[in-house]
Amino acid sequence: MPFYYSVSQFNSLDFLDLPDKELLTFIRLNNFSPNADWAEDNPVLHYLLANELFDYVARLLTLIPERINPNLCDGAEFGKKSLLILLTLLPSNDSLIFKFMERYQNQLLLDYQDENGKTALHYAIILGRADIAERLITLGASIEVSDNEGFLPFDYLYCPGEVISTTLKMVDIEPLRDTNAASNQFEDHADRPMMLQGMYLIQCKETLKNLIKGNLVLVKYIEGKSPYWGTFIGDDCPLTYGEMREFAQKIASNYKCSLSEVFVNQKLGSDEQVAFRTKLKELSNDFSGQSIIQKCSQGHDKIAKLLHKLRNEMKQTVTLT
Length: 321
What we know:
Blueprint: H1 20-29, E1 37-39, E2 42-43, H2 44-50, H3 54-63, H4 83-89, H5 95-103, H6 120-126, H7 130-139, H8 161-170, E3 194-195, H9 205-213, E4 218-222, E5 232-235, H10 238-254, H11 259-262, E6 263-267, H12 270-286, H13 292-320
Parallel strand pairs: 3-5
Antiparallel strand pairs: 1-2, 4-5, 4-6
Helix pairs in contact: 4-6, 6-7, 9-12
C-alpha cells in the first residue's frame, strides 16, 4: 500500500470533514485504515496528532474505535513513540487523552518505552500533567521503570525548565506559546501561515498586543496549489518580501514550475485587512497570558502532591501487612 500522503482520496484530509454516515461509507469503500502510514515511519494517527488535528482523531476514535491499534508506534525517525506517549506529550489536548485511555484501558501497554527509554508516565511528570500521571498510575503504570539515563518517572519532579522545553520541542511545541493558542505561529484570518518582519512569530499575549497596536498591511505572497504547497501571507516589509520570494523560488524549483505561478505579491483587499484585525481582537480575549512552559512548571506542584499521596498509600499498605 502506498503512503497515504500520495493517495488522492486521502492526501487532502477533506474526507475527515464528511458527516458521520458519509465518512463511514468513505472509510469502507476506500479501505481506509487509521493504522496505515501517512509517510515513512509516520502513521496516520501520529501525523494527525503531531499537527494538532485533535478533532479528526476524536472522530475516528468515536466512529471506528475497533479499527484503531491503541499501541501503534511511529518509526525510528520520530522516536518510536506510542499513541499514548504522543498524546501525553501534546499539552494542548486534555479531553482526548482521557477518552483514549478510557476506551483502551485494558489494552494499553502502559510501560512501553520509546527510543529514549521513557514511558508515558515519565513525560506526564516532566510536563507537569498531574491528572494524566495519576490516571496512568491508577491504570497500572509502573513508577519503577528507568529511562536510558537511569531516571525513574518521579526523578523528573521539579526538573529544570530546559528539560521541559526540550521535551516540548520533541513534538514541535513552542514552549513560549500561549496555552490557549491553537498552533505555534500566528496565522491570518483564513488560517493561512503568516510571516511578519521576516519571521514566523510565536503566538503569545505580548506579541499579540504589539500586532494590535501596529498598522499591519497584509500581502498574499505565495499562491497555494493543493495538495503541493499552501498559500502564504505576510506583512509588507522588505524582510518578509525577501524571505517569501526566496521560499517561492524553492517551491518553483522543486515542482518545476515558473516563479510567477507561485509568487504573486498581491496586497489583500480591505475586507480581508479588517477581518484579520477582528481576529486579533478575538485572540486577545481568548489568550490566557500564560505560556505552555509556565503551565508545565506550575504543574509540578500537583505532581509533588501526587507523590506525597502515593507515599502515604504505600506506608498504609506496609502497616496493614
